[in-house]
Design goal:
Helix content: over 70%
Number of domains: 1
CATH architecture: Up-down Bundle
CATH topology: Growth Hormone, Chain: A
Distance between the termini: 26 Å
Organism: Mesorhizobium plurifarium
GO molecular function: transmembrane transporter activity
Largest sheet: none
CATH class: Mainly Alpha
Keywords: Membrane, Transmembrane, Transmembrane helix
Number of strands: 0
Protein name: MFS transporter
CATH superfamily: MFS general substrate transporter like domains
Radius of gyration: 21 Å
Length: about 400
């Protein structure tokens, strides 16, 4: 194979990878728009506990999708599954729109809508990450995941920001924004379908038929990567609270939630591009606990931010930086300490842990916010970050004393 052929193949792979990154950005954008759902539900007479309930139903669907994803991948292939996540999310958007436009506002469609959205996001989150890994080499996989995460956050934060601007200057309402979310998810599905059909490397991501899934999954749960599954569960719990309860928290605190989403976007995206490569080359056993400890301090800023926009902005920036850098580092470390043949399954367990926190914790957060108030809720998520810091410190010390038979020779 000559140099020109290699260069052309590399360019094509890079282009396909960008298509999957664009897909993640569009679906994340739709998710960001639906971060306004709690505010909308409050406006029609529902409360935070109701949102927590439909979120818990979404959690069950997401976890089910992640649990069966190894079997789905084996039977249908990654190539065929790639666009399904976006289509499911679009169907969830359509369900809530039909319910609202009908004027009935029945309870069941809210649950069905969130279950479809959660299942679509779970499938996309898992299969999309597998596709990015398959289209990346050992040398550039870390930077690929950093960009993937950065554009995911960019989409989530641009959703509510654009919604606010459109509502203010065009008079469009929340339901109009939900239509925009449906269109974004549909476009995302089209992009991934186009890329998956043309990228030959995607075939390498399929799980072999001879693999013993149950035995390998059980082994991984007690391997060196187990600590990172716990860490990402706690991170997802913090993240989902910040995103889903930010608008009502800001309204109750005399603040504008646009400050958070704008600061968060700048901090997460900027840190991942500007500092991320340097962080990924450093000693993770020192950097990760340091980042998590910094998140404790930044989250306490929310506790003291009511009535103080500057503290609110600084806390949002600091949390965005610490979370933005720590999350991809957890994912990279979970892969690094795992043998190459088990890395696809590690990503699946990582996704399972993420969705457990993402969809279950809003129910607990809803109860705390209603009965104990948002001051207690802000202290609670700071406590979760403190627990993360302790687990990382103790976990790395324990890992150094363990045998490393599952550690791969190359950093993933």
């Amino acid at each position: 194979m000559n140099r020109h052929t290699i260069s052309t193949a590399s360019t094509r792979i890079l282009w396909y990878r960008r298509m999957f990154i664009a897909e993640r950005c569009l679906i994340s954008f739709a998710m960001g728009i639906f971060a306004l759902l709690p505010v909308y539900l409050l406006s029609i007479g529902r409360d935070e506990i109701f949102f927590g309930s439909i979120s818990a139903a979404g959690m069950a669907t997401a976890i089910l999708i992640v649990l069966i994803s190894p079997s789905l991948t084996r039977h249908f292939s990654v190539r065929r599954l790639a666009p399904i996540g976006g289509l499911l999310y679009a169907a969830g958007c359509a369900t809530i729109l039909l319910n609202e436009f009908s004027g009935v506002r029945a309870t069941l469609p809210y649950f069905l809508s969130y279950m479809l959205q959660s299942g679509g996001w779970a499938l996309h989150f898992t299969v999309g990450s597998i596709c990015i890994a398959a289209l990346s080499s050992d040398a550039d996989r870390s930077s690929s995941f950093m960009a993937y995460s950065a554009f995911s956050t960019l989409g989530v934060t641009c959703g509510p920001l654009l919604s606010s601007l459109l509502a203010r200057f065009t008079g469009l309402g929340t339901l109009d924004m939900f239509i925009l979310a449906m269109l974004a998810a549909t476009a995302a599905s089209a992009l991934s379908s186009w890329a998956a059909q043309r990228a030959a490397n995607i075939r390498d991501a399929d799980i072999p038929n001879h693999a013993s899934l149950a035995r390998e999954l059980f082994t991984l749960l007690f391997s060196n990567s187990a600590m990172f599954f716990v860490l990402v569960l706690l991170s997802a719990s913090i993240y989902t609270t910040l995103i889903n309860f930010q608008a009502p928290f800001a309204n109750n605190s005399g603040l504008r939630y646009e400050i958070f989403f704008g600061s968060w976007a700048i901090a997460v995206v900027g840190s991942r591009f500007a500092i991320g490569p340097r962080v990924s080359r450093g000693a993770a056993d020192r950097i990760l606990p340091l980042l998590l400890g910094g998140m404790v301090i930044s989250l306490l800023g929310f506790h003291y931010s009511p009535g103080h926009p500057v503290i609110y902005a600084v806390g949002s920036l600091a949390t965005g930086i610490t979370y933005g850098l720590s999350y991809p580092l957890m994912q990279a470390e979970a892969v690094r300490v795992t043998a190459p043949q088990s890395r696809t399954l590690v990503q699946i367990i990582f996704s399972l842990s993420y969705f457990l926190g993402l969809y279950f914790f809003p129910f607990a957060a809803g109860i705390v916010s209603v009965h104990l108030g948002y001051n207690t809720l802000t202290l609670l998520i700071a406590g979760l970050a403190l627990l993360q810091t302790a687990i990382a410190l103790v976990g790395y010390r324990t890992t150094r004393r363990k045998p490393v038979s599952t550690v791969a020779s190359n950093k993933g």
